[in-house]
Amino acid sequence: QVQLVESGGGLVQAGGSLRLSCADSGRTFSSYPMGWFRQAPGKEREFVASISRSGLSAYYADSVKGRYTISRDKDNSKNTVYLQMNSLKPEDTAIYYCASRRSPGVGIFNTPNEADYWGQGTQVTVSS
Questions:
Q1: Residue 31: pLDDT band by 50, 70, 90 thresholds?
Q2: How many CB atoms lie within 10 A of CB 71?
């Protein structure tokens, strides 16, 4: 059974940094692209970043480009994907979700509808 478990959220002041982690279990991690999405109160879930199976390609939402970095274990030994968030803004406040796809070998995804598996989410709050 596939499980995605996020960690690393919290409260931070504007301009600060956080690193989120997502541990993937129950399958061969290196075969699947991974992504991060977020959902703020009263808003729809939106794409943040995604990374290819190899880790060589990454894609970002315009709102986080240059501030966030998605990565995955270089040798895929820890089955973990990360989201380094710098220069945080109050508008980054949301629940952040890790996501992935069911089929091995597929490409990067950037819409919630393309994701088959979701983590439980981790709260990120940025104070002004």
A1: confident
A2: 16
- Token output for 57: 């390609």
Residues in a beta bridge with 58: 51
Amino acid found at 2: V
Give residue-wise pLDDT tens across range 53-85.
989 999 999 999 999 999 998 765 789 999 999
Whether the Cβ atoms of residue 19 and residue 10 lie closer than 8 Å to each other? no
Per-residue pLDDT reduced to its tens digit, 76-125 = 578 999 999 999 999 999 999 999 999 888 889 999 999 999 999 999 99
The CA-CA-CA angle for residues 59, 64, 68, to 5°, reads 75
Residues near 126 by Cβ (< 8 Å), separated by ≥ 6?
A: 11, 12, 13, 14, 16, 88, 89, 90, 91, 92, 93
Residues 6+ apart with CB under 8 A from 81: 21, 22, 24, 34, 36, 51, 70, 71, 72, 98
Calculate the alpha carbon distances from 36 to 9, 65, 128 in Å. Answer: 13, 13, 24
